[in-house]
Write a structure and sequence with these properties.
7-stranded antiparallel sheet; EC 5.2.1.8; alpha+beta; single chain; isomerase; peptidylprolyl isomerase
């Protein structure tokens, strides 16, 4: 979905949230935004959807907990039995393929049946889900479970292959757009890494066996629907809070990273600067997570890192082959 359409859809959903919702079963509240008139979802079906989950804070604007548009990764949802009256399953059963809606679900009930605590400091006791049903794989009456499981695997594999093909075809354009939109004057290495040295630091350079203490922020090339940078990891607490990815369990400070355990693009970027240096690097997927992706990273996804080296601790072990890994939040 193009950025303009995403923003327009999000704006429509936001406007809908200001209007009155209808009463559904249990504590469910709903507003149908689009109804294509197709067969409704039922128990046993398998659904591909995009959605946004938000909660309303007592002292600030809505906090986004999930946004599949920002992640560029739709969700696949098996429709099982409802856990409680007015849960997300009950909400989705009101929709069919191509439909979109906004739902409000009771957070106390969600916490009780999911085992996950609800967020603190909320203004209301509801989470808002705004969803668009992309595709539905309906289970035929009396169809054997084994037969439908095979269909689900084939359906998921086909959709995932489509995602991979799209990402592969669009990767170069994503990198170019990020550079153009931010008016960056980058240099390139022979490997394809693009970079801007903001501060060279001292003359020391990290070797593969060294441990570097770095402050960093990793982001995707696409912006979020609200226009902010799309951060997926950072050692900076302020940036983590602004990006909505703050974790009370994380230690926000410079982090020690053994260079030979990281992805080739990250290694190459670190070795461009010395202690005290700062560099922005744009890592193509072939120097990062490649065609398989990992964690929140989709296949064929370029990444952007802002890195500052605080110190270098010399290592003594023989170097090993670099692995396609990136920094992960310290717990």
């Amino acid at each position: 979905m193009k950025k303009g359409i995403i923003i327009l859809f999000a704006a429509t959903l936001g406007l809908a949230a200001c209007n009155n919702y209808k009463k559904g079963e249990g504590d469910l509240q709903y507003k149908i935004l689009k109804d294509e008139g197709k067969e409704k979802i039922k128990e046993g079906d398998f659904v591909k959807l995009n959605g946004i989950q938000t909660v309303e804070g007592s002292t600030n604007a809505d906090s986004t907990l999930v946004n599949t548009y920002d992640n560029e990764r739709p969700a696949f949802f098996p429709i099982s039995k409802s856990m409680f009256k007015g849960d997300l399953v009950a909400a989705l059963k009101m929709l069919g393929e191509g439909d979109s809606a906004s739902f409000k679900l009771n957070l106390d009930s969600m916490a009780k049946y999911s085992g996950q605590p609800k967020p603190a400091g909320l203004k209301t006791n509801y989470a808002t889900f705004t969803v668009k049903i992309e595709k539905v794989l309906h289970k035929v009456a009396n169809e054997a479970d084994s037969t439908f499981e095979k269909k689900k695997r084939e359906f998921f594999e086909a959709e995932y292959k489509g995602l991979i093909a799209k990402n592969k075809a669009n990767e170069a354009a994503k990198i170019k757009k990020y550079i153009d939109d931010n008016k960056l004057e980058v240099k390139s290495t022979a490997s394809g890494l693009q970079y801007i040295i903001e501060k060279p630091g001292n003359a020391e350079r990290a070797a593969l066996t060294d441990t570097v203490m770095v402050d960093y922020t990793g982001q995707f090339t696409n912006k979020k629907g609200n226009g902010t940078i799309n951060v997926f990891d950072t050692s900076n607490e302020k940036i983590a809070k602004e990006a909505g990815i703050h974790s009370p369990m994380a230690q926000y400070a410079a982090r020690p990273l053994v260079l030979n355990q990281l992805a080739p693009g990250f290694i190459e970027g670190v070795q461009l600067i010395g202690v005290g240096g700062k560099v922005k690097i744009i890592i193509p997927s072939k120097l990062g997570y490649g065609e398989n992706g990992g964690g929140p990273i989709n296949p064929f996804t370029p990444l952007v890192f802002d890195i500052e080296i605080k110190s270098i601790k010399k290592g003594s072990a023989a170097p090993v082959a670099a692995q396609p890994m990136m920094p992960t939040p310290a717990q």
